[in-house]
Amino acid sequence: MTDGDDRYVHDPAAFDERDERADGSSTGEEDSLTGVPPDAVDREFDWRGWVLVGVMVVAFVLAPIAIYLVPPGASEYRFALIILPLLPALLLAVTAVWATTRP
């Protein structure tokens, strides 16, 4: 190849993080729902975080203790091994989504 070729050479200085696209949207990192950069959003550990911590304690500590303490007999086997882990898992999933989505 000769020196007169129009080959692409990457130049990072030629790109700006906040360049505008043709459709008017920004190319920088932004929250896809609000269009606000992640650094500009208030992400404090508030009461929603404490609710999530409480549900985690229930799901990871209290539910296994309950499973251990409830002896799986003939009628209690299904309750001890299926329902006790399922309910805290569903509660944890719903609470985690609720606690991390902010208006």
Explain what the structure shows:
It contains two helices and no strands. The chain has 103 residues and is mainly alpha-helical. The model has no long low-confidence stretch (mean pLDDT 74). It has helices at 47-69, 77-100. Helix 1 runs antiparallel to helix 2 (77-100). The N and C termini lie far apart (56 Å).
SSE arrangement, N to C = HH
Average pLDDT: 74
- Residue share in β-strands: under 5%
Count of β-strands: 0
Poorly predicted sequence stretches spanning 5 or more consecutive residues: none
Output the radius of gyration. Answer: 26 Å
Overall, the morphology is: elongated
What is the share of helical residues? 40-55%
- Largest pleated sheet: none
Tell me briefly what this model is.
With 103 residues, the chain is an all-alpha fold. 46% of the residues lie in helices and 0% in strands.
Notable traits:
103 residues; mainly alpha; 2 helices
Secondary-structure map:
Layout: H1 47-69, H2 77-100
